[in-house]
Amino acid sequence: MINNKQQRLVIATTQLQNQQIFLTDSQKHYLVKVLRLTKGNRFIAMDGKGSWWLSELAENLTEATIIESIAIKTELPISVTLIIAMPKGNGFEQIISGATELGVTSIIPVNSDRTLLHPSPQKLERWRRIAQESAEQSERQIVPTILDPLDFTTSLEQIINDNTYRYICIARGDIPHLLNSLPTEQLLENTDKITNYQPPSIVIATGPEGGWTPSEIEQAKAAEFQPVSLGKRILRAITAPIVALSLVSSALEAKI
Amino acid sequence: MINNKQQRLVIATTQLQNQQIFLTDSQKHYLVKVLRLTKGNRFIAMDGKGSWWLSELAENLTEATIIESIAIKTELPISVTLIIAMPKGNGFEQIISGATELGVTSIIPVNSDRTLLHPSPQKLERWRRIAQESAEQSERQIVPTILDPLDFTTSLEQIINDNTYRYICIARGDIPHLLNSLPTEQLLENTDKITNYQPPSIVIATGPEGGWTPSEIEQAKAAEFQPVSLGKRILRAITAPIVALSLVSSALEAKI
């Protein structure tokens, strides 16, 4: 059996030749610098079309070898990352449980202008244990990755896949609803005939109590995040990520 | 200012003549027997097209007089009721907060085959206070009604509007996704030209930890509830109602 704590990486099928994966520079950076993998470490490569492979990082750190393919039953078809401003109190544990149940691929806890937390290593360990338990209870194959906390600005730069749909949830203002903004057809199109197909990913950011500051919203827009609404009412910081992920995972699964 | 704790009642515009509302037998039963209103008590009549009226029950208890119309900004266009198996522990308070933030009209806590709770009057009072606080924080105009707990079977009979879309969320099995089952177009169609238009309502039931029993699912089907899925993973009892209401309120608001 695979170790279901493996990290995931989205690859294009063109990167794959004879059971070898040729990593791009940004993928290598992500695996080696962000996830701190080293030679011989394993991760899961996913092609965005439903194929997942257990893979092992080669000695040169720029290639990986496919060990075996993985049968996926309850995972979302594409990678979904949640960037979330860490709330005060214990609310984050609820968010991790709910997001895991909804199929999230990875969670990036961030410090924002309105919240500044420095969780202890024990706290991070606890968060990852909650993700593991929730993954088991919700019958997932894979445990979501919870990254070490980052500054919000830094988190915006963690996107390594060009074909990523990016959203930042905003409480007020006349902006499109997330449900209208998800490109469901593009996400689920039959891609077998497309050469050089880049599988899509989704990244969605939800803010702290009090919301993102105007400066944070501007930074996100500059990083090609689309501002979206989750409805007419003001959601708490612990409700918003669950609502956002409900819409994303339902849009991905309802149409299949 | 209106007292925003008023209960709501869906009426057909044909029931309205010269500022008087002529109640049907089942509406009268609901107001007088279920909600225990008496002459002179006020409620909110909503026509499912965006018009809401503060109304006062007449002495004969079969008519009501319109006091004034109410401007609605952050409420859902139609009535959405959540039937929910009461979970053990404090999870129900989280559900009330989240459901209120998502615009729920009323919540019916039920005892199911797998859960049996008899909340004290103080507990019920606390639940209603949480609904009030969440309504204020999420900037709603109206506080959701939390009914006294019922047996699940009895709750299935509380539907007084013929044009009600009924759903029961089920964790396993090859059943349609809720997002595919919501009749968005019918719910939001332009009804100005339809005579004898019955405004629609939605009722959605989510189960306890361990799920509904087969017998409960059969009872719900007999009461014209449609079994629906919330995705491929198993959701906790406190996550499922938030996911279900996320989809309902987004389907109602995203397309407007």
From TrEMBL, chains A, B:
<comment type="function">
    <text>Specifically methylates the N3 position of the uracil ring of uridine 1498 (m3U1498) in 16S rRNA. Acts on the fully assembled 30S ribosomal subunit.</text>
</comment>
<keyword id="KW-0808">Transferase</keyword>
<feature type="domain" description="Ribosomal RNA small subunit methyltransferase E methyltransferase">
    <location>
        <begin position="75"/>
        <end position="248"/>
    </location>
</feature>
<dbReference type="InterPro" id="IPR046886">
    <property type="entry name" value="RsmE_MTase_dom"/>
</dbReference>
<dbReference type="InterPro" id="IPR046887">
    <property type="entry name" value="RsmE_PUA-like"/>
</dbReference>
<dbReference type="InterPro" id="IPR029028">
    <property type="entry name" value="Alpha/beta_knot_MTases"/>
</dbReference>
<keyword id="KW-0963">Cytoplasm</keyword>
<protein>
    <recommendedName>
        <fullName>Ribosomal RNA small subunit methyltransferase E</fullName>
        <ecNumber>2.1.1.193</ecNumber>
    </recommendedName>
</protein>
<dbReference type="InterPro" id="IPR015947">
    <property type="entry name" value="PUA-like_sf"/>
</dbReference>
<dbReference type="GO" id="GO:0070475">
    <property type="term" value="P:rRNA base methylation"/>
</dbReference>
<dbReference type="InterPro" id="IPR006700">
    <property type="entry name" value="RsmE"/>
</dbReference>
<dbReference type="GO" id="GO:0070042">
    <property type="term" value="F:rRNA (uridine-N3-)-methyltransferase activity"/>
</dbReference>
<dbReference type="Pfam" id="PF20260">
    <property type="entry name" value="PUA_4"/>
</dbReference>
<dbReference type="Pfam" id="PF04452">
    <property type="entry name" value="Methyltrans_RNA"/>
</dbReference>
<dbReference type="InterPro" id="IPR029026">
    <property type="entry name" value="tRNA_m1G_MTases_N"/>
</dbReference>
<keyword id="KW-0698">rRNA processing</keyword>
<keyword id="KW-0949">S-adenosyl-L-methionine</keyword>
<comment type="similarity">
    <text>Belongs to the RNA methyltransferase RsmE family.</text>
</comment>
<keyword id="KW-0489">Methyltransferase</keyword>
<feature type="domain" description="Ribosomal RNA small subunit methyltransferase E PUA-like">
    <location>
        <begin position="23"/>
        <end position="59"/>
    </location>
</feature>
<dbReference type="GO" id="GO:0005737">
    <property type="term" value="C:cytoplasm"/>
</dbReference>
